[in-house]
Amino acid sequence: MSKYKRVKQMIPMERLGLFLSALCAIHCLAMPFIIFFAPYIVGSLAFSTTVEWSLVLSSFGLAAYILILDYQKHKRLKPLYFLVLAFVLKVLEVSLGNQSYNWIFGVLLGCSVAYAYWVNYKHKTACTCKMKAS
Length: 134
Description:
Elements: H1 3-9, H2 12-37, H3 49-74, H4 78-96, H5 102-126, H6 129-133
Helix pairs in contact: 2-3, 2-5, 3-4, 3-5, 4-5
């Protein structure tokens, strides 16, 4: 099965969560380049704390909802470990304050949540519980 077909088979909430995680990682990865090349954009809406916290909270909230529901069904902890890792990274970023290297935490956070979704999806596709229900 091709990668495209596997992503297409994910439920819409999982696709939305994966999209939000990827968007968060891209946002954080682009920040240093935007700051370097276009300093006047820094104060724009795209890089405001409101946008940052909206992305983080929506990504964490959706991931927690989906991954906890799937854990209850499949009893696989690995995706939750990556979600907790992302949460710890955000707490560490906030505790260190506004530093020039905070974008690294954002990229790691987005990648951790996206990887949690991916691992969860792999568990679900390998699970035989669908066959047991039949």
